[in-house]
Each structure stands twice: as C-alpha cells, then as structure tokens.
Amino acid sequence: MLLAAEDDLDVLGLAHHSGQAIELAATHQPTVLVLDAELPVGDLDETLAAVRAAASATRLLVLSGAAHPATTVAVLAAGADGWLAKDCSSRQVATAIRQLAAAGQAPVVAATPTGRDPSVELRVRTLTAREREILGLLTHGLTTRRIAQELCLSYQTVRSHIYNLSVKLGVHSQLEAVRFALDHAVVEAPGPLARERRSA
C-alpha cells in the first residue's frame, strides 16, 4: 500500500511464498522485485537464482530482519542487488527501488532504521483526511457529540469514522486510538486549545 501510493511506482503483484514470487517475476518481468528474506516455502538463495533465471533484467531488493553485517554480505553474495533491514522506513524502501531501477547504480545497503516503525506508518497512511481530523479532535478531549457539532456532521457519521479509524489503527477503543496517536506522533499533543474547547 505504501509503495502503490508513490506516483512513480507501480505494484504489479504480491507474493505470499517463494513460488509465487518466482511466478510473478516470470509473468511481469518487473524492474525491481522486493523479496522478504524470510518468505515461506523455499530457500532464499534458490529463490534468488530462480528469479534470475525467470527475469534476468529484474533487480532484486531483499528485506531482512537480521541486521548483522554478515547477513548483508551473504544476501549480496547470493545474487541480490540490494538489502534493507525490515525496520527501515517506507521512504527508504521507495528510494532503494528507485536507485536499483536506475541503470548503473551500485548495490543498495541500509541497516540503520530511520523514521517511524513501518507497520505504524502503514496503518497511519490508510487514514483518510477526515479520520485524521477526527482523531486529532479526540486527542484534544472532544466527545463524539462535540466533534459532530464542530464538523457539522451527524453523530452516527462521526461514530462510523471513529470505528473505521480504530479498525485501521488496530485499536479497540477511543482511548486506545488517542494513546496510539500520541505515542506515535500521528497528531500534535493537546495544548491550550484543547482546554479552551473542553471548557466551552
């Protein structure tokens, strides 16, 4: 979802195991194939070799949870064109794909995590502008009914938005949604404005 949101990147398919990855590579001949080093069914070395045989022009970017230098060497030696730690940001992944897509680029290696946890970023990116707005008002202490008044929406519409954003964030209550938003800096922490609104 994060990569598909990039204007210059097209996601051609999604594989759930090594065999599917090889089939997709053969079918679509992608410019870059992003492989999970721990992809079920199949050895990474064998998968890389099979993809090379099926799509020789495809550049291979491997994501791995192991951030040891030896892992980097092993992955590149196995035939990958780039390696990223799984806790790298989505921006790093997109940048690595662009670098590999450009002719003559050296292998991409990045082991230092930056930015927000990718799983958090993914959940946040699925929020609509309205859901973000409502989440922000929740963190400022406004009730569902007050939010409906502020945004000129029906009470039920606001409740639906709160339910949807809770599902997307993987939380089970408004309190958990507020805590998630503040812990991960999804919205600004409440300030004087929040106190003014609560007392209004």
Overview features:
Rossmann fold, single chain, 4-stranded parallel β-sheet, 4 strands, elongated, 200 residues, Arc Repressor Mutant, subunit A, 2 domains, alpha/beta
Brief write-up:
The chain is α/β, with parallel strands linked by helices. Helices cover 52% and strands 9% of the residues.
How is the secondary structure organized here?
Layout: H1 18-28, E1 32-36, H2 44-54, E2 59-64, H3 69-77, E3 82-85, H4 90-101, E4 108-110, H5 118-125, H6 129-139, H7 144-151, H8 155-169, H9 174-183, H10 192-199
Parallel strand pairs: 1-2, 2-3, 3-4
Helix pairs in contact: 1-2, 6-8, 6-9, 7-8, 8-9
Helix count?
10
Radius of gyration: 21 Å
* Strand count: 4
Quaternary status? single chain
* Low-pLDDT segments, ≥5 res: 190-200
Overall tally of domains: 2
Strand-residue proportion: 5-15%
What is the mean predicted local confidence, pLDDT? 80
What CATH calls the topology of the largest domain is Rossmann fold
What structural class do you assign from the helix and strand content?
alpha/beta
Largest sheet: number of strands, sense, barrel closure = 4 strands, parallel
Report the CATH architecture of the largest domain. 3-Layer(aba) Sandwich
The arrangement of helices and strands along the chain is HEHEHEHEHHHHHH
Q: Give, in spatial order, the strands making up the sheet with the most strands.
A: 1-2-3-4
**Principal-axes shape call:** elongated
Q: Find the CATH superfamily of the largest domain.
A: Response regulator
* CATH class category label of the largest domain: Alpha Beta
| Helicity range | 40-55%
From the N-terminal CA to the C-terminal CA, the straight-line distance is 40 Å
